[in-house]
Design brief:
Elements: E1 5-11, H1 14-30, H2 35-54, E2 59-68, E3 71-80, H3 88-92, H4 105-112, E4 115-121, E5 125-133
The structure holds adenosine-5'-triphosphate (ATP) and magnesium ion.
Length: about 130
């Protein structure tokens, strides 16, 4: 089934991260997610959006409202054309950072959603896709 709603927004800077956070919150509320689930998907989105800006050099967030077999889901896709991630397993480990972070963003985001995938290769950019089902 095609998404019932599908929008993309730029992620260029910290202000865009804040705006994306608000947009994800708005969608989650409209889709009827519980307050706990709203917070989970917004927190995951915030971490992934920040990675797109900080490590990916900016990119886009695509938001899709899914409806499959009567259940609703919110799919978020973060895309950049930055340096990519050479070792995805390592990047997912809690505490690993190549910058000045805590290294908790990717692993934390993965635990907050129902589906999580990373498609990345050195030089080819990074795509992180997450789905939260209601
Ligand atoms: N979009 C991306 N492009 C390139 N590298 C990335 C991207 N996202 C994450 N990484 C790499 O994965 C590492 C781990 O990311 P993660 O979000 O878990 O931690 P962090 O951003 O370093 O710290 P924190 O999110 O806790 O502030 C990053 O340090 C970076 O090396
Ligand atoms: Mg991070």
């Amino acid at each position: 089934m095609p998404p019932t709603r599908d929008e993309s927004r730029p992620l260029r800077n910290e202000e865009d991260v804040v705006l994306s956070r608000q947009a994800v919150r708005g969608w989650a509320v409209e889709m009827g997610f519980s307050l706990v689930d709203q917070t989970k998907i917004v927190t995951a989105a915030s971490e992934l959006a920040r990675n797109t800006v900080v490590y990916g050099g900016g990119g886009t967030l695509r938001m899709e409202a899914l409806e499959e077999g009567g259940r609703r889901g919110l799919r978020l896709t973060f895309d950049d054309r930055g340096p990519g991630i050479a070792d995805v397993e390592q990047a997912l480990k809690d505490g690993f950072t190549s910058g000045n972070g805590l290294g908790l963003g990717l692993g934390g985001a993965r635990r907050l959603v129902n589906e999580f995938s990373i498609d990345s290769a050195p030089g080819a950019g990074t795509r992180v896709t997450v789905v939260k089902w209601k």
